[in-house]
Design goal:
582 residues; alpha+beta; five-stranded antiparallel beta sheet
Length: 582
């Protein structure tokens, strides 16, 4: 019996071994068959899913590393309808924390659109508020586990980035803003939107969480470093705000630029807006060109244009600093009588006296002596009527009429010479005048200093727009402008520094006629004249305490120049000249 059982066991073992071997052979055959390869390929298709990753928007800094625009995490708060247990508790908690109507939240949860399993209650919620709700949800989970009602089960939190402006309204007109869809508007945010936003990347993401390390890193958008000096910008905005109160002006602009390379150091305008509350844009501004008047609001600048007329006269050879003429108080141009600002004759004057007393008759005499072709050729080369190419969105070109235009009249040759009958933006006048401050070479104004990408910094080189006048003419005129301010004892003067500059008082056209009681008061100046390191433009709109630029814009320039000298650490003329002499 034992031998019989032993044989049966051996036979059974052998049979089972053969069956096992057959199974192994069959498994091996199946795994290496063409059909298995097809199934493995299909399985791999479901091991990954195609997803689009959006990079964080590039940050914006001033030239000294102060953050002007960055990113912060905000939250979308929603409800997973498949697991929600207590809609009333969720509605109560969210309404208390976020200030949203309770019944609105409850209706969203209980009456969602057909087919939805997830509904959004609120978005762009600050991290602190989201954290408070998360802590409350966690605290209620223990009670829910003990049989109490469902608490905040189903309440979900999804974080995502949002643009943040730590300086609020500071330099808002330069920076611009980003809306909730991630698009930049105005300023450098719009101009460099593509660079800042970066490139979305589509990648295959493993569905297996253990393979999360395989996810490709998406590079952030390009970081921008601006030419703006944050401290100088803050000072310019403060000085401008105080000037509007002091002189009862309706608006104003102060721009500070390096005339050697076109770098914008500050650009203050009114009004300004808190960029973190960009949705108030429509409340603050009526028109888009009000966002940054320095580049987008052309106006008749008045006597600051006399700098360009005198430059053209000196460069063309029709006048020298010592050239004299008899000022009778009026001149006939194109059948119309042009008078001086005070409607008085000034007798015999040289060209420096012409600038010192800002004589309209002198300028009209020079432009008519040059003739229309030469005069408008110079104005065109200075860039009037053209975009400067500044790297901020929304620039306007202004208007310079030419002979042959339907609305050009012979009298325009006279009035244009002292800045009436043409329009320009402050940045256009600064670009044109930079040819005088920069020894005959015109600079292109720009706000971008450098780009940072993948850990490397790429500096932006200065760009030049031509040489409309000679070096000799530019330096000669700078000296004449400095002397004219000194002889006048101008309120724009800065002790210890020689400054070149010119006032502008332009009557404002109202209903087709110039209103003697409403003016745009301006002043443009640069210094020190032997080595210009700053150029400042001041524009006050409709000052009420005085209509004259010499009494309003000039002292604002002086105050801004003193602050600029301090912040840029520019030694007095005597110290610098001693250093050069050594």
């Amino acid at each position: 019996m034992r031998q019989q059982y032993a044989r049966r066991t051996q036979v059974l073992t052998l049979a089972m071994g053969l069956i096992a071997l057959a199974i192994i052979v069959q498994m091996t055959r199946i795994q290496n068959s063409a059909e298995a390869a097809i199934f493995r390929q299909q399985a791999s298709n479901y091991a990954y899913e195609l997803r689009t990753f959006y990079p964080d928007r590039g940050e914006i800094y001033d030239r000294n590393g102060h953050l002007l625009a960055g990113n912060k995490s905000v939250y979308e708060i929603g409800v997973d309808l498949n697991i929600v247990k207590d809609p009333n508790a969720i509605a109560t908690a969210v309404s208390v924390e976020l200030g949203i109507d309770y019944s609105q939240i409850l209706d969203t949860i209980q009456n969602p659109p057909e087919g939805l399993s997830y509904v959004v209650i609120a978005d762009f919620i600050e991290a602190k508020q989201a954290s408070n709700l998360q802590e409350l949800k966690k605290a209620l989970e223990e009670q829910a586990a003990q049989g109490v009602r469902g608490g905040l089960t189903g309440l979900e939190f999804k974080s995502h980035p949002q643009r943040s402006y730590p300086e609020d309204a500071l330099a808002s007109n330069i920076i611009g803003f980003v809306n909730r869809e991630g698009r930049g508007y105005f300023g450098v945010e719009e101009k460099y939107n593509t660079l800042l936003a970066g490139n979305p990347v589509q990648v295959l993401v493993p569905t297996d969480p253990n393979k999360a390390s395989e996810i490709t890193r998406v590079p952030d958008g390009t970081t921008l470093v601006l030419t703006i000096n944050r401290d100088l910008q803050a000072a310019a905005e403060q000085i401008l705000d105080e000037a509007l109160i002091t002189y009862e002006a309706q608006g104003g602009t102060i721009v500070v630029m390096d005339p050697r390379n076109g770098e914008l150091l500050a650009m203050a305008v009114t009004p300004r807006m808190d960029l973190n509350q960009f949705w108030n844009y429509g409340v603050i501004y009526d028109r888009a060109n009000e966002f940054n008047p320095a580049i987008s609001m052309p106006y008749e600048p008045g006597s600051v244009v006399k700098i360009l007329t005198m430059a053209a006269a000196l460069d063309s050879g029709i006048a020298t600093p010592g050239t004299t003429y008899l000022d009778t108080g009026s001149i006939l141009v194109g059948g119309a009588t042009i008078q001086n600002w005070d409607q008085e004759p000034w007798g015999v004057q040289d060209m420096t006296g012409c600038l010192q007393h800002s004589l309209n008759v002198c300028m009209a005499t020079l432009s008519t002596q040059m003739g229309a072709n030469a005069f408008y050729s110079y104005m065109d080369n200075f860039g009037l009527g053209h975009l400067t190419g500044i790297d901020m969105s929304g620039e306007a070109p202004g208007r310079l009429k030419f002979p042959g235009d339907a609305d050009w009249y012979p009298v325009d040759l006279g009035t244009n010479s002292f800045g009436q009958g043409l329009t320009a933006t402050p940045i256009q006048i600064m670009m044109a005048a930079s040819s005088v401050a920069n020894h005959g070479r015109t600079v292109t104004p720009h706000a971008l200093f450098a780009m940072v990408r993948d850990g490397r910094q790429y500096n932006v080189p200065a760009q030049f727009a031509g040489s409309p006048i000679s070096t000799q003419t530019a330096d000669m005129l700078s000296g004449m402008l400095a002397v004219s301010l000194e002889l006048e004892d101008s309120l724009a003067l800065v002790p210890g520094y020689r400054i070149a500059g010119k006032t502008g008082t332009a009557q404002i056209p109202v209903d087709g006629f110039y209103d003697n009681t409403q003016t745009n008061a301006s002043f443009i100046g640069w210094g020190p004249i032997d080595d210009p390191q700053f150029m400042i433009y001041v524009w006050l709109e409709r000052p009420a305490t005085s209509i004259w630029g010499s009494e309003t814009a000039a002292p604002v320039f002086g105050e801004m120049a003193e602050k600029t000298i301090i912040l840029l650490d520019i030694p007095p003329d005597s110290i610098r000249q001693q250093i050069v002499a050594k």
